[in-house]
Amino acid sequence: MTLAYDDLGPEDGRPVLLVHGHPFDRTMWRPQAEHLAGRGHRVVTPDLRGYGESTSTDTKTTLDVFANDLVELADRLGLRGFVLGGLSMGGQIVMQLVSDHPGRVEALLLADTFPGLDTPEAKQARIDTAAKITDEGMHHYADELLPKMISKRTRATRPDVEAHVLEMMRDAPSQGAAAALRGRAERPDYTEGLKRIDVPTLVVVGSEDEFTPVADAERIHRHIAASTLVVVEGAGHLPNLECETEFNQALDTFLTSSSGATP
């Protein structure tokens, strides 16, 4: 599987691999990629298979498949060790990768994500939604999701962010998004595995996140001994876009402290 990706910053910079959520693409990380590249990091932002410009014929894509794709990309780019970050589904893929490929990750970013299993109702909802978007496409689904993806404050004050988020969701390939929903419904419980994570970890969540509220981030923080929790006030499920300055500052501080030196 060949993933589309952007590779910004100096080739010899500290590698940072960022994993987008559902139903987005690699442009979700543009504010962080440009900022960190300017700080001397090498930032790789792929489109997951079935999203953005990465094609797929899968009807079901489990999170271990996404994780293996990312490791293959890292190997191709010569990144033996790297900082790994993910938001929402991207965070769950990160947890899967850390479990399946120990020793590859030097530090972690887990943003607005959830380690546990879905309830039976939530699992069925993913399966039903996959069927719906396969039949109807992404447009109506995107319109339904938007009010839950970003906070009311963001919608009132950041029309640029609202437009970007809506565009990503509407443009997501329905087959790839449906395949991911089906695979995600079958994901394992990552909660106990969090206790085995021994690398520096930044846990970030928007204060107004409806999908993965602050309590979920606090749960992750409690389970990872070497973790720091940052709550971004006024942001919803996408604090990296809604409050990019605050998010980037938290990430800067974390990357500096986890490397022992400014990049």
TrEMBL record:
Domain AB hydrolase-1: 15-242
Keyword terms of this UniProt record: Hydrolase
The keyword Cytoplasm appears for this protein: no
Keyword Hydrolase: yes
Pfam families linked to this entry: Abhydrolase_1 (PF00561)
GO molecular function, one term: hydrolase activity
Signal peptide interval: none
Official protein name in the record: Hydrolase
Organism listed in the record: Amycolatopsis camponoti
